[in-house]
């Protein structure tokens, strides 16, 4: 193909780059943008507060939480459940009262009808006999649903009195179970394991722990832990080691490398790590912003 000049603006094709540029400047159309490393929490940060954990605990699925934030989350959910339960019971009690009131009104109407019928038994019987005679004479073979005055009894949607009343949507009984905000599974504090980090001993680094770039290391191999290094938590002791250490040292004999304790597969919890800015990690780094779309 013939090469175009660098600043050629006479192209007959509306290129993809031009479409993206015009879409971003016009304010219409859905935008897809890659999320950077700074927008993703680190591996040692709480999944709720997105800050370094003071008292870290890990869920059976490998999500890290700060114990204080986790307890506050559970208390908030329990308070919300109590509020919804009160509203549900209030609405249920109101419905029961309405049903009881309708029952009393229906009973009273039956009593009134009975009294009227007692007072006008003879008159009603005579009227009924006269009407039945007339109907038998005029419409003996008629099977139409509009005959014998039935046309006035049929409901009409366009008549306001026959339109169904709009009622408040019934509330469902709230669920008492508290679910994990990350995995969606039932949240139980007894299933969480306290995490024991191994601090990096660097005498030359006098910065605060929250500001340090390298804060923790593997409890066995002393490799630096980061978002790029897969790690696991040993359930029995809470120590954090690298996945490579687990594959090469523990998986052969299933013995704890620090105290020699017997381990099983259930004692190993893969730690969910953050993103590094590359697509090889376990985090989707694609952000989407939905905006109005112009259609021809």
TrEMBL record:
Domain Ig-like: 155-237
Entry-linked Pfam families: zf-NOSIP
Listed PROSITE patterns: IG_LIKE
CDD domains: RING-Ubox1_NOSIP, RING-Ubox2_NOSIP
Compartments, as annotated in UniProt: Nucleus
Coiled coil (UniProt feature): 78-108
Record-level GO cellular component terms: nucleus
Keywords: Coiled coil, Nucleus
GO molecular-function terms, A-Z: ubiquitin protein ligase activity
Superkingdom of origin organism: Eukaryota
InterPro entries per UniProt: Ig-like_dom, NOSIP, Znf-NOSIP, Znf_RING/FYVE/PHD
UniProt similarity note: Belongs to the NOSIP family.
Name of the protein in its database record: Nitric oxide synthase-interacting protein homolog
Organism: Sipha flava (yellow sugarcane aphid)
């Amino acid at each position: 193909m013939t090469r175009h000049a660098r600043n050629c603006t006479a192209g007959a094709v509306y290129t993809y780059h031009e479409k993206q540029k015009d879409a971003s400047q016009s304010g219409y159309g859905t935008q897809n943008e890659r999320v950077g490393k700074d927008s993703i929490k680190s591996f040692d940060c709480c999944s709720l507060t997105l800050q370094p954990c003071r008292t870290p605990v890990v869920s059976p699925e490998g999500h890290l939480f700060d114990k204080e934030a986790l307890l506050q989350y559970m208390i908030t959910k329990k308070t919300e459940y109590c509020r919804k339960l009160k509203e549900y019971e209030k609405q249920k009690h109101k419905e029961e009262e309405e049903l009881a009131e309708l029952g009393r009104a229906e009973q009273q109407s039956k009593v009134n009808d009975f009294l009227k019928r007692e007072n006008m038994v003879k008159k009603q019987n005579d009227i009924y006999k006269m009407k039945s005679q007339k109907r038998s004479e005029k419409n003996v073979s008629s099977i139409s649903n509009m005959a014998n005055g039935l046309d006035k009894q049929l409901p009409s949607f366009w008549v306001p009195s026959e339109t169904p009343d709009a009622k408040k949507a019934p509330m469902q009984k709230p669920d008492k179970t508290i679910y994990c905000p990350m995995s969606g599974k039932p949240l139980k504090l007894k299933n969480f394991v306290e995490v024991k980090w191994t601090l990096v001993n660097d005498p030359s680094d006098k910065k605060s722990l929250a500001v340090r770039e390298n804060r923790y290391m593997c409890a066995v191999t002393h490799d630096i832990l980061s978002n790029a290094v897969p790690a696991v938590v040993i359930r029995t002791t809470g120590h954090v080691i690298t996945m490579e250490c687990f594959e090469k040292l523990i998986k052969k004999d299933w013995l704890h490398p620090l105290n020699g304790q017997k381990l099983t597969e259930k004692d190993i919890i893969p730690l969910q790590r953050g993103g590094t800015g590359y697509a090889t990690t376990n985090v989707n780094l694609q952000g989407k912003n939905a905006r109005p779309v112009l259609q021809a």
